[in-house]
Amino acid sequence: LVLFASCKQKELPVYNLGETDLTQENLIPFPRSVEATNDGFALDPFTGIYTFSDEASEFEAIGLFLSKKIASKTGLTLPVNDREVERTDRIINIVQKDSISLSGDEAYELHIGRDTITLAATAPQGAFRGVQTLRQLIPEAGIDTLAEFPIWRIPTGRISDVPNFEYRGSMLDVARHFFSVEDVKKYLDLLAYYKINYLHLHLTDDQGWRIEIKSWPKLTEIGGSTEVGGEAGGYFTQEDYKDIVDYAARLYITIVPEVDMPGHTNAASASYAFLNGAEKPAKLYEGTRVGFSTFDTRKDTVYQFIDDVVREISDISPGPYFHIGGDESHVTKKDDYRYFVSRVEKIVQKYGKRMIGWDEVATADIDSTSIAQFWASLDNAKLAEQKGMQVILSPASKSYLDMKYDTLSEYGLAWAAYIPVDSAYIWTPETYSGIPRNQILGVEAPLWSETISNIEELEYLAFPRMIGYSELSWTDETNRDWEKFKVRLANQAAFLERMNVKYYPSPRIDWV
Ligand code: TNX
Predict the structure, then answer these.
(1) Exposed, middle or buried: residue 500 (CB in 10 Å: 0-12, 13-18, 19+)?
(2) How confident is the model at residue 6, as a pLDDT?
(3) Distance 437 CA to ligand 1 centre (A)
(4) Are residues 256 and 321 in contact, defined by beta-carbon separation less than 8 angstroms?
């Protein structure tokens, strides 16, 4: 309802927006603290976005990102840093400060007043995470007013927020089935909305090699030509991969590349026979068995090959991590396995990266700076702890996105568990593994692709569960509660539908 709607210069249309309650909004992940002041900010055609910072271009890009997202949700086109025009109405300021009440690059504060919204952060990452909160506070539908335009009511109050875990990830297996650059970008867009900051790409496996290595072209020519089920496969050129890395960087998401070895390497050995020490190249494999392949770990030429692969991928991966896989090397002798992992760790370090490996790598003699990804063995996770390593939590029975929801699921496996939406959320990463909190880097939910071959199937397994993992990794324990989360999750339907996401409409959720 417009009480005063004359749009003369400098006079604000004043709306009676009714009472609001910021604490009851459907924010996921739920912020560290939320205080309501019960009024409303009216997002209208006269709202402008302004950015103030030392890192001018990065903050301006974040302002433009917000403007673009507001346009696609509401149809409003808000100018960014348009200092020529004197705005007559609301202002959204995105401000870099030396310090705010919470510390950390991803921390932010959001003050929503009647006429001004101020988003403050010390670093662009924080501003970007805060922008996601603001996006979630803009209602899907505008309110009709007596003026010619609707307005979008944002509840007033204060939010200060910071992530609980510094590593909040998902993994996508592009090896068992290949996914296109466009598919990966769509997944990244969805992850960014829920403040995920790492996407781990499982780039190689028995069934396919998916990343161009210029010094070893047959890896993609031969090793990239197949996938599970006998379909055509595919691979990322280095340009494609850089495109993904850059796209992710604009969403403040870091790509973690994985080359899985010494097991899970049939596609590589089918391309170059010397890698597994055989006379003839291995046959391409299109099934779903695991644990049957291995590199020849005692041959220097194998390490020269790995040096090239790690160097070429590291050159186009600005992030701090390189994942060497290391899982399920069932046909590698134990000593050979341990020798291999230690030697490959040195190569990864030589190219300036920290090594991540699946939990088995903790059985080798490796550095405390390397990271173990706990998926199956608590004993291995304990070994990592004793070595002073940090651990990423991906327990299969809780966080594997490729596990079926229940017996009726169309896709997925069930070897670790059925993981319905509530079970995916109801566990405590802080205490689950018994690893001390300060050695837990974060949580990652892997999506293996033996049973899925296109984006709709990917979305069916990833959503809505991935939304729960975002809250498990960002929100502190005191703010997590299944009954409350369930309501906020139910309210994600409009967003998911607008984004054309074919999520699994779990009957355990009363979708709105
Ligand atoms: C185990 S998890 C694997 C993968 C499979 C997955 C299927 C892990 C480190 N290894 O090779 O794709 O199970 O759920």
Answers:
(1) exposed
(2) 39
(3) 26
(4) yes
pLDDT digits (tens, 9 = 90+) for 384-440: 999 999 999 999 999 999 999 999 999 999 999 999 999 999 999 999 999 999 999
pLDDT bin (cut points 50, 70, 90) of residue 2 is: very low
HSE on the CB side for 298, CA within 13 Å?
Answer: 6
Per-residue pLDDT, 247: 98
What pLDDT digit, counting tens, does each position of 339-355 carry?
999 999 999 999 999 99
Active site residues: 328
Model confidence over 253-299: pLDDT tens digits?
A: 999 999 999 999 999 999 999 999 988 899 999 999 999 999 999 99
375 lines ligand 1 (CB under 6 A): yes
Cis peptide before 29 (omega within 30 of 0): yes
How many angstroms separate the CA atoms of 151 and 78, rounded? 13
Is the predicted pLDDT of residue 34 greater than 60, yes or no? Answer: yes
- What does the buried/exposed string (b/e) look like for 253-277 if buried means 16 or more CB atoms within 10 Å of the residue's CB? bbbbbbbbbbbbbbbbbbbbeebbe
Q: What is the mean pLDDT of residues 323-345?
A: 98
* Residue 493 alpha carbon to ligand 1 centre in Å: 30
Q: Which atom, in ligand 1's list, is nearest to the CA of 415?
A: 14
Confidence (pLDDT) at 15: 77
Write the secondary structure of 336-365 as one string of H (helix), E (strand) and C (coil): HHHHHHHHHHHHHHHCCCEEEEEHHHHHCC
pLDDT-derived band at 11, boundaries 50, 70, 90:
low
Sign for the CA dihedral angle at 359, 361, 362, 366 comes to negative
The predicted model gives 473-491 an average pLDDT of 98
Q: What is the pLDDT of residues 40-72, one digit of tens each?
A: 999 999 899 999 998 779 999 999 999 999 999
**Where exactly does CATH 3.30.379.10 map onto the chain?**
2-161
Mutate to test the pocket of ligand 1, among 261, 327, 400 (most ligand atoms within 8 A of CB): 327
Residue nearest to atom 2 of ligand 1 (CA): 375
Here the tokens at position 24 are 């009851």
CA dihedral angle for residue 315, residue 198, residue 354, residue 122, rounded to 10 degrees: 90
Q: Which of these CATH numbers, 3.40.50.300, 3.40.1110.10, 3.30.379.10, 3.30.56.10, describes 2-161?
A: 3.30.379.10
Kindly state if the Cβ of 181 falls inside 6 Å of ligand 1: no
Q: Is the CB of 327 under 6 A from ligand 1?
A: yes
Atom of ligand 1 nearest to the CA of 396: 2
**Which residues belong to CATH 3.20.20.80 in the chain?**
167-480+493-498
Taken in order 381, 382, 383, 384, the sign of the CA dihedral is: positive
pLDDT digits over 490-500, tens only? 999 999 999 99
CATH architecture of 167-480+493-498: Alpha-Beta Barrel (3.20)
